[in-house]
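User: Predict the full complex structure for these chains.
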Amino acid sequence: MISIKNVTKKFGDFKAVDGLTLDILSGEIFGFLGPNGAGKTTTIKMMTGILSPNEGDIVINGYSIVKEPLEAKRQFGFVPDSPDLFLRLKGIEYLNFIGDVYEVDSETRQQRIMELTKKLEIDDALNDRLITYSHGMRQKIIIIGALLHQPKVWILDEPLTGLDPRSSAVLKEMMNEHVSKGNTVFFSTHVLDTAEKICDRVGIINKGKLIFVGSLQEMREHASENKSLERMFLEMTDDE
Amino acid sequence: MNKVFVLTKVLFKNAFLASNKIKLKNVIITFSIVGILLIASYVVPVVMGIGEFVSWLAPVVDPSILLEMFLPSIVFVLFLMSVIAIISYYYLSTDISLLLPMPFKSKEILLARFILVTLSLYFFEFFFFGPVLIGYGVGSGAGLFYYVYMLIFLLTAPFIPISIMSIIITSLMRFGNLSASKDRFTYIVMFLSLAFGLGFSMIPTTIEFDINPAEFASLINELQKVTNYVVPFLRPAINALKDSSSFVGLLWFILYLAISVGVVCLFLLVSSNVYIKGVMEGGNGKKKAKRHQLDTNKSIKKGSAFKSYVLKEWRLIFRTPVYNTNLVLVELILVVIFAGSFIFGLSAEGGDISKVIAEITSFKLSSQLNYVFFFIMAGILFFNGISLVSSTAISREGKAAYFMKYIPMSPIKQINAKIFIGIIIHLLLPVIALFATLVLGVIDIFQFFYILIPLVLLSVFLNYWGILLDIAKPKLNWDNETVAVKQNFNGVLFMIICYSLAIIFIAFALTLLFIDNIRKAIHGFIIGLIPTLVGSVLLIVSILLILNFVKKIKSLAKWMILLNIFTLLIILGGILTFGGIMEFVHYLYQVNAGIGIWSIVITIALGLATYILVKSISLKGDAIFDNID
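Assistant: Here is the predicted structure of the two-chain assembly.
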């Protein structure tokens, strides 16, 4: 599980994230929504150790990303929003590198790589450099890399962008399967439809503040009538 | 034309001014320091050397024949350099996908790129060849017109090489199906550059002052014939510079300019028809790429994280032509020039290699020649200053640098993996050379280790130093790999530090070389007292300040720069203190410290400084990467 405790991030005088407190439980898919510039990516960057919070702490599976960064980082698999990493490495070289960094043993590594690359249909491209991959293929290899060490917590920043419908469906299925084993998936998305279909709970952030957390049912009750998710989202994040 | 100007301006800003978040004031100060250092260490000696050479040649041969050698060399180097720049700016810039859908004519994009490539070659051209041509002017007593022509020549010299290479490359990319193998093409150029390096290594042996001027003249005459065939367009420029004071010279110069402009027009005419299509072919080529089968049992294996990280760094450097040429090839060219000069030097002695080896082996380095040790260290510093592997290690990650922050690998471990390759590249040539001197019997096994150990430590220290500069202010926001290494302020800073340190080491060497004269002039007690006092104050104050500020300073950039400065002062303080103490010993007992003792002292000073650097980085923990996001 992930526990975000009263986290604030400032850039100069600007508060990108302001006193955010949020618990993402084991066994749930949590969708993180918000308009552009609301603080989604900043929050994800703090969760993964890319940015350090000015105040507060984030605990992942019992390890604080501030106090025990290395242990905390081993708990999650992270898919960043841009898949353009190490483009001159071959697919397999990238995965082996990630495997070594996360200390995945040869047997598990072989089995995971074979299984995941087959599922996402890029097993025939592993011996080619990432620079020859399409955007979607790069996204797939990054996803495989993130899941290689079988992390309990998945943190995914816009993971479905660029994926073809089949791979997108496979990933959603994998997310469901993962949480059914009592694990956690945290992902940000712009696609409200996706959030509506697969999330157990959603959080909406606007101007650095969390304005709603709950299930879609609760969100509908919160919005007092039976509206589409898009309508509710627009109302909640309306700047007036 | 207006569109070309706007486009060039944007591309220029993007390529050259993508900032390291460094203040203009600091840039001006640094460039002033670099300027002074370069003028002192390179420009003045070259101008004076060439000037002297010209006046030495004048009584026997018309020295203007030297222009026959200089101008083709300039153009030849520009030809080679333009290839990598053209491929990089025309085809590898990611902005092309933004420019293609915009309403620009092919000609406008090309011209803007052409100007950019020209600008990128200016620094090298002016720096290396400017002083040579000025030296010729000074030596031959040329008038004002010579300098005016020279300046215009240097400004326009890249036009023809870039135009011709652009025509060839754009045509090859369009018709030769080279778009998919741009990297391979760049490697061919790299090997050509290596061959050129080898050729260049022959030159120093032919222009030794003791050769017969008549022989030299006939050599130049041969060269003149070759020039007329290979680079005929240079003839008017050479003639114009020769006769700069006459009206005929002016006519020649106008002819040269007309040819240059003509070639540029020809390039625009030919290349504008093929460039865009070539770029678009490149895009298609990617999707059609053939997939290669993989033997999963062999390919998927566990290894150590450190080894894997080093391998990743090495693959990225080796497979990225811009990095490879700027980080590895530069060193290799030096190796080739070094080895080439040696071999050609031998053959110049009449081809009897065994005789020359006998001559070299008859020289034995005495352990009392302690100044040689400092000259060697200074040489290593000059050599290391060129290699920018570590001082651009973070910048090279570009927009993906955040990767370093979310993987479960401590910053110090990642830093160690990154500098590992820098250390290997730094040490490769010096260690080979050192080993050769051991085999040839110039040094004995003790001296081998006396030099090797401080040399390795110096390289380790410098690489930590370099990477700290890049961690403090990395240049991550780029679209073209060239920016990360060639237009990176941290690389320049690293070079300055290495060169400044080299100059200090030379000063030490000269002090030791002339110590007897100094001892005659100044009382021994004072020679001992001053360095001991200054050195120990530097040493103690630096250590105390580091212990004090490591925890207090909040700005990461300031923290790193202060850490760098103080560790450097520890080394200098250590050497000065010991030098002073040795002078007391000499004053009392008439004993000098030999190479062995100096080696131990420097090893201790470097070891201490490196230990403090590493310890401070480790203590800083994850915060060391705070400027990377």
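Chain B has a mean pLDDT of 82.
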